[in-house]
Amino acid sequence: MRGLRSRWSAYPLAFLAVAVALAIRAALTPWLGERVPFITLFGAVIVAAWLGGGRLAMLAALAGYVGAEYLFVAPIGGLAFRGLPQVVEFVAYLLSSALIGALGGAMQRARRAAEENEERLRGFMQNTPNSVFLKDETGRYLFMNRAAEQLVGRSDWAGRADDELLPAEVAREMRAHDRRVLAEDAPHSFDL
Fold it and tell me: I need a labelling partner for 56 at 20 to 30 A (CA). Which of 73, 129, 151, 157 fits?
């Protein structure tokens, strides 16, 4: 349900990005006139691709094209077929937008795959019988699996350091192990 909800919420955001792009282009009209009516729309297409992938990017591109034609190309406030130059302009705009959409779709698929892989890894690490700890560079805990929580005897570890969770002697030993891992830039297993 979460994926469906976020997918649908991407549509209003994408069209808001198109509206903002058209507003920016309108603000530039005193300097640009009728030239480059679609120039600001590529940002909106990128936002739509980021939010919803290639299809939403193309939908945003089409909506933006119609909006720009209506607002910035003569006859202003109307839509008219302007012949072959308009067709070439439209095809070039769509090809550029399709490239952005394809890249955005690929990026979104890669992001989903990375999230799924991270979830699988987190599930594996959470359920392994070995104690697993992950810390940031300052020694604060970012992750601790169930076995590690049992070893430490606490579940309120997030963002805390060894000194806050462990007896002083054990905390000193843990910091020594951390220094070794950082100095050698390699993972190690330690017995406590």
Answer: 73
